[in-house]
Design goal:
499 residues, alpha/beta, Spore Coat Polysaccharide Biosynthesis Protein SpsA, Chain A, 55% helix, 9% strand
Length: 499
């Protein structure tokens, strides 16, 4: 075996082993959740006296959903004299008029709602929240992004958890009003369910750190101040503040049975933009806080879980490396012998992928009666995760080299039903080279599949197909959706801010 072949195989198996380790971590999250099922958070007694609550609504160019959000928040069941609503609008388009008129409409009904518009957009969403907090009168701060439709019992369900003075934040679970719109929205809903039910549920009940998700949660105002306030040196100000607050000793509560309905992106490029921001911000937070976490006087288990949580996005770089190495390593292994290839390659792939399937199967079983019917989407979810590796690797690299980018918010189109349409609306995002790279990798894996079939290497086909479908799906859908209804859309629309 030549030196090149040796280096190829060493790199290949090193990447596989690291991915397998993170795969086994998913088993641990399931164990953490299942072993603490009896620790579901219980509501405390009603707070006495009832505190003043401020609901903040950060907006930036949300013309399709701003009125829906404001109307839903104004219907929240809470003593009117103790509820303040802040519309924190940084918009530069028609959203300004829509949001301001909605605020005036409900103010005439006796609701304490204030419209606050900034022009400099310093700090983006974190800056807007910070500016609103300076003039807020609430002891507790609830936050909703533009695509949410909070239910009327949101505050009455969450506020009793603050009876414990050590609780700094209470997070609700996200719902998905348009999950049946398309395959993409169904995949996102399952992905988010796993994040909330098992990750948040396991970490919260198991005494580990978990994070506020930027929306659909309530903060104790003193916890925000004690942790250093909103800071905008990362793209995930929510994750950053969450870890700083918990390092200060504040405890967080996740309430899985309180659901805040929201709209998931219906367009691939919007989904990619959201994932890019989350991945980049997570790595920025990792670089900023992980050394401090590892030095902190907290239990080892908390440190280990924080390490896996904050470093998970580095796996996208490994996934890209693996994508390039799969074919040459397969050829080398095949020439060395069929059985040797099966005994080493397939078990590692199985360790890395079956944990993924188990993770989402357990999640769906926990919250849906028709969970078995939903399992058919898990392979597609795995493929889309692979297909996002180019997009999210770019995000990780930008964070590592400290490249500054705007807070790119995810476009929302008021999509609630199958018949709703987004084509022809504003806020469409253009794509450039990235989808072409994804398509090239899709074709690369198409050739790899043919090679495996021609040489009878059938054991690798399920894994190769995951890569092939993932890259072709993300690449093709990006290109097709960009040019859908192109005559009604101005491309290269700048979108930044908000969620």
């Amino acid at each position: 075996m030549t030196l090149t072949e040796t280096l190829t195989l060493v790199s290949y198996f090193f990447v596989l082993i690291i991915l397998a380790v993170y795969g086994w971590h998913r088993y641990y999250l399931v164990y953490l959740y299942m072993s603490n099922r009896d620790k579901e958070p219980k509501q405390g007694p009603p707070l006495a006296p009832t505190p003043v609550v401020t609901i903040q609504l950060p907006l930036y160019n949300e013309m399709y959903v701003a009125d829906r959000l404001i109307e839903a928040v104004c219907r929240v069941d809470f003593p009117r004299e103790l509820l303040e609503i802040q519309v924190l609008d940084d918009s530069t388009d028609e959203t300004r008029e829509i949001a301001e008129l909605a605020a005036r409409r409900f103010a005439l009904q006796g609701i304490d709602i204030k419209y606050i518009h900034r022009t400099d957009r310093k700090g983006y969403k974190a800056g807007a929240l910070e500016a609103g907090l300076e003039v807020a009168r609430g002891e507790f701060i609830a936050i909703f992004d533009a695509d949410f439709i909070p239910t009327s019992d949101f505050l009455t369900s969450l506020m009793p958890h603050f009876a414990d003075p050590g609780v700094g934040m209470v997070q609700a679970r996200w719902g998905h009003i348009n999950q049946d719109y398309s395959l993409l929205t169904k995949i996102q809903s399952i992905l988010l369910d796993g994040h909330f039910v098992l990750e948040h549920g396991g970490r919260s009940r198991g005494g580990r750190f978990f994070n506020f998700n930027g929306t659909a949660g309530v903060w104790r105002r003193t916890a925000i101040a004690d942790a250093g306030g909103w800071q905008h040196d990362t793209l995930t100000e929510d994750l950053d503040l969450s870890y700083r607050a918990q390092l200060r000793g504040w405890r967080f509560v996740f309430v899985s049975d309180v659901i805040a309905p929201a709209e998931v992106p219906v367009e691939m490029n919007a989904f990619k933009s959201q994932q890019h921001r989350w991945a980049k911000g997570s790595v920025q937070t990792c670089l900023k806080l992980l050394p401090r976490i590892l030095r902190a006087d907290i239990p080892l288990g908390v440190k280990v879980e924080a390490f896996f949580h904050l470093t998970a996005n580095f796996n996208y770089i490994l996934m890209c490396v693996l994508s390039v190495l799969i074919f040459p390593s397969m050829v080398i292994r095949y020439n060395m012998g069929w059985y040797e290839m099966l005994l080493i390659d397939v078990p590692l792939f199985f360790a890395a992928t079956f944990s993924f399937c188990n993770f989402y199967a357990v999640c769906q079983r926990e919250i849906h009666s028709d969970w078995r019917a939903r399992l058919k989407y898990v392979p597609f979810l795995m493929s889309v995760g692979i297909g996002l590796s180019i997009n999210n690797t770019r995000a990780v690299v930008e964070a590592l080299v400290k490249k500054e980018t705007e807070f790119a918010r995810t476009p929302k189109y008021h999509i609630e039903a199958d018949a709703d349409e987004w084509v022809g609306k504003k806020y469409r995002q253009s794509v450039a080279v990235q989808p072409l790279i994804e398509l090239v990798l899709g074709l690369y894996f198409t050739w790899t599949v043919f090679y495996a079939l021609a040489n009878g290497i059938y054991g690798t086909l399920p894994f190769l197909l995951l890569f092939q479908v993932g890259f072709l799906y993300t690449g093709l859908l990006s290109v097709v959706q960009q040019y859908a209804g192109d005559d009604a859309v101005v491309l290269n629309t700048q979108v930044a801010g908000g969620k």
